[in-house]
Amino acid sequence: MRNISPWWVRVPLIFFLIFGLMEYFIDSGDKPAFIAYPIALLFMLMVLFILVAIELILNSVENIMFQTLSPEAQKRYLEAKFKQWEWKWGKAYWKKITGNRPVGEEQEIILDHNYDGIRELDNNLPPWWVYMFYATIIFGVVYLARFHVFNDYTQDMEYDREVAEAQIAIEAYKKTAKGLVDANTVELLTDASDIKAGGAIYSANCVACHMPDGGGGIGPNLTDEYWILGGGIKNVFQTISEGGRNGKGMIAWKQTLKPAEIAQVASYILSEIHGKAPANPKAAEGEIWTGE
Ligand code: HEC
Fold first, then answer.
1. Is the CATH number 1.10.10.920 carried by domain 192-288?
2. Which of 27, 97, 215, 248 is the most exposed place for a label (fewest CB within 10 A)?
3. How far apart are CA 15 and CA 28, in angstroms?
4. 34 and 41 in contact (C-beta within 8 Å)?
5. So what's the pLDDT on residue 3?
6. Alpha-carbon distance 180 to 58, whole Å?
7. Apex 254 CA angle, 250 and 257, nearest 5
8. Ligand 1: which of 237, 250, 262, 282 to mutate, judged by most atoms within 8 Å of the beta carbon?
């Protein structure tokens, strides 16, 4: 049996491979899986145990096979096995990129001047350095031609373009991430689809206390100019999200509704209910709201 790698490479490699796969496939939120689920830790311990067991079994099988070999075969086997596990290509590659001459060849490259016993080796420049130097020259020529001869674009143009791109990205992000809104950033929504969604939320959750036309019942009249907790999109959002005054019956809807949905229902109230004439208006409560 020929070993490709020693056990101290094999066991940790397989162990961390399985560990990585486990972390990748188990969705454990922002905590690592082995902390979120103690059972995963147990699983990894089992894996380690099994890996060690396999190594032990392989080792004893090897041992038994070894005993059955003839003496010469045993010798050949040992030679093959203890032949150093080397990074052959790694060493060759290293030598190539550093261009080092072996110590034994130093006589050939030593220069014959001698200052207080210090002498100079006339080594080649290391190829890695030389190639990088060539690369910078090519880069410099291309850069000079592109920006100083053909004036491709200036830094100002580059800046403006990136700002414009970022602006587009921000708009796109805001469109998909409506959940980001809070009472400080919310704006009155005007899209018909948002208003319609707000209407559906209103019918499902709010009509019992505020009436379908907003005239009021247990809750105050939402159609008039008077607001107990302040009018305008930001205050209305705040009220719906955090609820009314204690014991009045208006709960904090942030438990049930997402921020985007609160923005929709708040916009629905302000654009479709507010300012209309309800069938049975409840007497005004609160104060006239004159603006943000
Ligand atoms: C259980 C009854 C009840 C339900 C259901 C209810 N509300 Fe209210 N709502 C109230 C009461 C009572 C108040 C007054 C709170 C206060 O005085 O602090 C109120 C106040 C409000 C106000 C502020 C009015 C003002 O004058 O400042 C808004 C806006 C509002 N509700 C919107 C909603 C929305 C939107 C829903 C549905 C998601 C909803 N309410 C569901 C009872 C309710």
1. no
2. 27
3. 20
4. yes
5. 52
6. 57
7. 105
8. 250
Tens of pLDDT, residues 43-59: 999 999 999 999 999 98
For the residues 64-71, what does the mean pLDDT come to?
88
> Ligand 1 centre and the CA of 191: distance in Å?
24
Cα separation, 100 vs 273, whole angstroms:
84
Quote the pLDDT of residue 213: 93
228, 286 Cβ separation under 8 angstroms: yes
CA of 59 to the centre of ligand 1 (A): 75
**Per residue in 81-132, pLDDT tens?**
766 555 677 777 887 887 777 777 888 888 888 899 898 888 888 888 999 9
Q: Where exactly are the structural domains of the chain?
A: 7-82, 192-288
CA of 94 from ligand 1 middle (Å) equals 74
With both helix axes pointing from N to C terminus, report the angle between 127-143 and 88-98 in degrees, rounded to the nearest 10.
60
* Ligand 1 atom 13 nearest Cα: 219
- Which of 1-10, 39-48, 128-137, 178-187 bottoms out in mean pLDDT, i.e. has the lowest? 1-10
pLDDT digits (tens, 9 = 90+) for 182-238: 888 888 999 999 999 999 999 999 999 999 999 999 999 999 999 999 999 999 999
